[in-house]
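Listing S7. Sequence submitted for prediction.
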Amino acid sequence: MTPQGESQSDILLEAAPQIKKQLAGHGKLLSDVMIDFPSHLYGYAPDLAVVAPGSERNARGRFEWHSLEAVLEVVSKSTRDNDFTKKLRMYAECGIPLYVIIDPSDSTCTIHSRPTRTGTYGEQEQIAFGEDLVLPLQGREIVVTTDGFPRDDR
């Protein structure tokens, strides 16, 4: 497991309570918890994962990829290639409806939606820190204010 940098930690501590409060029991928020993906090679613990309401754990006690409504990853220098290529492809192939890459080095959040089985997302929207990050989930919308997200100029 790659240790988090200070910016990553600060962003997660800012975003998680906002998301959890707005879920209000209609779904679950996980942070750095192992999720089972289709191949035994692909067990990932996303920075933040929104689990759909009513989802159940498998026999191993874990949620599976098809239970996820959104995944948010905060980029660090050591995970940059992983977040923008490998994870993007895998999350799209698995049909994760929203994949959000939060990048403190360029102060942006990129929302990927409309996944394809070929490992891409059909839509992409980029917002700057300071704007609201809107997560359109099934039947509800989560709004995360990004004013407090630190820029990675440390």
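Caption to Listing S7: primary sequence and predicted structure tokens for the chain studied. The radius of gyration is 14 Å. DSSP finds two helices and ten strands in the chain.
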